[in-house]
Amino acid sequence: MKRKMTLAQRVNILRASVMGANDGILSVAGIVVGVAGATTNSYSILISGLAGMLAGTISMAMGEYVSVNTQKDAQKMAIKRQKAALADDYDAESAMVTQKYVDQGISVPLAQQATKEMMQDDALVTTVRERYGFNPSEFISPYAAGIASMISFPTGSILPLVSITFFPPRIKVLATVIAVAVALAITGYSAAILGNADRKHSVIRNVVAGLLTMLVTYFIGHLFA
To answer: What parts of the sequence cross the membrane (predicted)?
Structure first.
């Protein structure tokens, strides 16, 4: 029977999706606004945006796949080292776990009892979690992360593409900037929730980064108009 994903695994896939959408919005917005600074030809702007969307989709998917695979390989090596450490000196590893709990403010008797029970239940999971900070049963799938990015990047790219292509020429750049700023505020807020970070700072940082990107690319494009 196929094992269900844990909450941590689902959150990591959501993270890849949110970041993929965010990058799709920001990257393609920068491209189309930059081209719009050089030309008013809607066809040229659309083609450049589509090319950016295609390149970004492949880049994001492969980048996420490689990144998660690298992380997974490092975690596998940590598990291998921890197995050897348990085989070599079980008591020392148990003492390490106890000390971790004592350092967190738990009384020594309670820390010793908790360590004993958890080590009896699964010594490897317990020591890996306390020494390296991850759960060996919660590996992130590089395929799932790659696919999430591959879907979310072009999805995010649609907004700046549609805005810059279909709004009237005299307001298309401004309308795209506003639409992108709103979308980046949403993805920034979502990323903050997933990362348990400050919502306000995340939104401001994301929107400011997007506005600066579009401003710079627009004026660079305008130089070649």
So the answer is: 21-39, 45-67, 143-167, 173-194, 206-224
